[in-house]
Structure formats: structure tokens, C-alpha cells
Amino acid sequence: KSEIEEFLNYLSDKKKPEFNKLMSLLFIFINSDLNNVKKFRHEGDGIFALKSYQVRFYGFFLPDNKTIFLCCSASIKKDNKNNKKIKLIIEKCKKIKSFVLKEGLNEKR
User: Fold this and answer.
1) What's the CA gap between 98 and 109, in Å, rounded?
2) Cα separation of 94 and 88, whole Å?
3) How far is CA 105 from CA 34, 44, 90, 102, in A?
4) In the chain, what is the straight-line distance between the N-terminal and C-terminal CA atoms, in Å?
5) 44 Cβ partners below 8 Å, 6+ apart?
6) Which of 38, 50, 83, 88 could form a disulfide with 57 if both were Cys (CB 3.0 to 4.6 A apart)?
7) For the purposes of burial, counting CB atoms within 10 Å of the CB of 15, is it exposed (0-12), middle (13-18) or buried (19 or more)?
8) Cα–Cα distance between 50 and 40 in angstroms, integer?
9) By CB neighbour count within 10 A (0-12 exposed, 13-18 middle, 19+ buried), where does 75 fall?
């Protein structure tokens, strides 16, 4: 299982209201423009945070297809003291983005 899949399973099992809010937000995200900086924010270097209350998904758009958003990591933000964790997540996303841009996506990996 991927980190994102495990995180979604956790939310679905343990935090159903948050999971439902997130699914609603993802539907809006897929079907509208992305100008709401409260819900969708550029974190730098092409990494974006999709936010639903305390839940955050971090990822980036594929350069050749701006309709595909690759989620790299997710977390629950409990307070503003998580800045170190968020910085580590963003760095992880940058590494994944760099790898994907260099190697491309290959379903056999």
C-alpha cells in the first residue's frame, strides 16, 4: 500500500467526518479552478498543499499534463508547531518530483 492509501484508510476508519470533508474538497478540487488559497496553496518549487481543516495533502502537477496532481504525502496538522514536519514533507515531495521529472512515471515500478 502507498502512504496516501494508508492515510486515507486511517481517516476513513478513525476520522470519518474529516474523511467526508476531504472527499468533498477533492470533488471541488477536481471540478473547479484552483484559486482558493485557503484550500489550495503553493508551498514553493511547484509543490502544493491541498487543505481540508487539519488534513493536508502535498504534491505537484505533472508538467506535461496540468490536470494530473500527484499526491506525495499527507498529514494531519494539529497546530503551528508542526513546521519541521511540514518542511520535511515538502522536501520529500521535491525529491519525488525531481525523480518523476527525471525518470518519468513507469507503472512497472
Assistant:
1) 16
2) 10
3) 24, 22, 20, 9
4) 13
5) 90
6) 50
7) middle
8) 5
9) middle
